[in-house]
Each structure stands twice: as structure tokens, then as C-alpha cells.
Predict the 3D structure of the following.
Amino acid sequence: MTDAVQTQSSPGEFKQRVFSGIQPSGGLTLGNYLGAIKRFVDMQENGIETLYCVVDMHAITVWQDPAALRRQTRELAAGYLAAGLDPARSILFNQSQVSQHAELGWIFNCVARMGWMNRMTQWKDKAGKNAEKASLGLFAYPSLMAADILVYHATHVPVGEDQKQHVELTRDIAAKFNHDYGVDFFPLSEPVIEGAATRVMSLRDGSKKMSKSDPSDASRINMTDDADTIAQKIRKAKTDPEALPGETEGLKDRPEARNLVNIYAALAEQSVDQVLAQVGGQQFSQFKPLLSDLAVAKLAPISGEMARLMQDPAEIDRILGQGAERARAIAAPILARTYEIVGMIR
Ligand code: TYM
């Protein structure tokens, strides 16, 4: 971002803290699992403080039926828990229960520039030619996302590739705030984009991201799909006529093949090279059954556990409530200090 001002702040000067979030705007996909949740769970093993959020305020930037939003919020929380997120070690909550996000979001609306928002590729993709009809919230969304991160002084933000630009904008907002008020208050948070599946692609089109909003259900694997559905979607996944190569270089210009190998590698917790050393030379007719067996073996226990957790919504609400209380305890003093810096009488 050219008109952003850099300051001296760096994550190194702040206590390490991880924050990330997912929108409850539909079912969870394999992209969300491999690009985000699985990595959130891995990060809680490192002894660093971790906060993971169901960003319900982001979800309403496009219309959400209230009953569906409630169900999806609980389902996403269940997804986090079923995948191994431990509410004793991580702070798990939904965004709207911690009002500090929205309050800091407003201040950041006054720091961020219209031009910055206009350059966000996700805004351009989502609003498209219909920008006049898009909600103001959808336009301002990256500044609320910056508040989500910075209200905890989070230093590390694990996300998929598609969120990188928003985390960079968060750094620009932090830098401009620090510069404008002559402080070194907000850290320049780092995006953490790692692993074989930082951008899981559609099963129908290797040039498009796997997304919960794609009209074709066959384009994605949902975390709630049963074993037969997963196997069928992988069987029908678009491929090319070549056999699999023995080395990563051979996946160049083969987006569909690369996507399936990346998914396999991420599920198997191996590098792409390790996978190709085993399956190089195979036809897709041999590789696809291996991939679907692996996907079912990894995902079925998670979807089973999600279904079990969903039978007790009160318990999910209790966990979210407790997490929100712990989140508020971190966010409140940071917001109070922000108001002071800005010049608000409290
Ligand atoms: P959302 O809800 O679209 O996606 C949640 C997370 O899943 C990742 N992801 C993917 N990763 C790999 N391949 C894919 N096909 C794929 N699809 C989704 C996303 O990169 C993301 O990490 N704005 C965010 C939510 C958010 C947030 C935050 C994230 C709000 N506040 C603060 C981090 C920090 C979003 O809409 O993600």
C-alpha cells in the first residue's frame, strides 16, 4: 500500500499472540479446514496464547437469515472443537459477544482510507459491478477485520492465501494509527500462510478457489459430507489426461492435478515432494481412490464429532460465552488505551 506510513513497530516487541477467525456464512469446506482450522489447532500446541473467533459480525455484511446464522455459528464452533481446538488452551468465542471489536472497528474506519478499501480484491470480486447495491459493511469489512486482530495486539494471524491482502491492510492501519497519533501502540501483525494447502481450489475448476459460496456443491468438499459423497466428488473432480509427475516441477501448468496433490499432502501431513515420490507415475484412476480414502479417514471423525456436539447447543453456547469473557479481559484495556490515545473522555 503506497500511501501507508511505516513505523518502528514490529511483532518482536509485543507478546506473541495468535488471532484468527472464520465467517459463519455457510457450511465449512475442506478449504477452511486445511487452510485455517487444522493450522489453528497445530498452533495451539506451541504454548502461545491463541484466540479463535466465529466472526458473526462479518457474516452479516451479506444477508443472513437469523435462524440460519445462529445454526451456522454453532456449527462452526462445533467444527473448531471437533477438529481438536481445546477451549481450555485456546480462547474460542463469537465476535458479537465482544463489543470491543466493533468499537475499535469504528476508530479504524476513521483511520483507513477509501482508496485502500477500493483496492481490496475480495471487495472487487464480491461487489463486482453491483457495488452500488453492496452493503456499506461489506466495503468497510477489512477495517473490522483489522480491529479483530489489533484489539488483542495479535502478532500472528494464520490464514489462507486469500486473506493475505486483508492482513497486509491491517498492518497499514496499525502503522497509520501509530504515525498519526505519534505512538508505538499497535503491532504490525504477520500473516502466517503455511503448508501445502494455503489455497485449496475448486474440484470443478483448478483456477477458482474452493468456496462455500460456489453455486456448485460438486466444486467443494463440505465438512459435513458423508463418505459416499466425498468419494463421489473426488471421483468426478476435474483432472487432465496425464499421469502424475514424480516431482513438484511437473505440476506446473496442471492446476487440477496440483490441487489434488496439495490436498493429499495437507491431509497426510507430508510435503508435495514426499507425496509425489509415492504416487508419481500413477493415473488419476489409481490416485483418486487413495485420495478419497484418506479424505474420508481424516474427515469422517470430525464430521461425526460435529454432529454429536450439535446435539447439545447449550454446551456450545456455554463454551462461546466463556471464551468471550476471556477475550473481553484482553480487549477491554487495549480499547480503553486506544480511546485515551485518540482523545476521548472516559
Ligand atoms: P473466511 O470465512 O472466508 O475463511 C476462513 C479461513 O479459511 C481460509 N480459506 C481457505 N484456505 C485455503 N483454501 C481455500 N479454498 C480457502 N477458503 C477459505 C481463509 O483464508 C481464512 O483463513 N475475513 C476472513 C475472516 C476474518 C478473519 C479476521 C481472519 C475476519 N476477521 C481476523 C483472520 C483474522 C474471512 O472471510 O475468512
Q: What stands out?
A: Strands lie at 17-22, 49-54, 90-94, 156-158, 190-192. Residues 19-23, 31-32, 35-36, 55, 58, 145, 148-149, 157, 159-160, 162-163, 166, 197-200, 209-210 surround tryptophanyl-5'AMP (CB under 6 Å).
